[in-house]
Amino acid sequence: MNKEVPVSQIMTHDPVVVLPDTPIDQIHQIFENNAFHHLLVVKGGKVKGIISKSDYLKVQHMLCYTWSGSIGVKDLFNTMRASDIMSKDPLHIESSDTVGLAADIFLVNSFHALPVVDDGELVGIVTAHDLLFYAYEGRPILVKK
Q1: Which domains are present in the chain?
Q2: pTM of the model
Q3: What are phi and psi of 70, to 5 degrees?
């Protein structure tokens, strides 16, 4: 594996994103209907946060055990938004940064996804899965735009 390959060669371009005020039930549907595990929260092209599927499931689990009665849980769940459950201002990398740097960040921080930002604007997302695929295949992934 060539660690000097730019992240732009393996990242997902045009990832699915949500707004900070996206209802949590919509986030639930996105995770249910897609195979990915990270959702970027964006406003005006700028990354405001990231929601992992496990973060979402922890909130859902917590609500079930914190509140008694399905009506109370459902009411609270329906008022929650992406901004309530996202990790704010996530660490990000640039598309010209290397896959080696991305791997180091994942290992040191126990992250599994990083937004890719150029000149302050979101251009993609790179995940640990992307790195594994690249390492296993030994070549950059051809991404459809």
Answers
A1: 7-137 (3.10.580.10)
A2: 0.84
A3: -70, -30
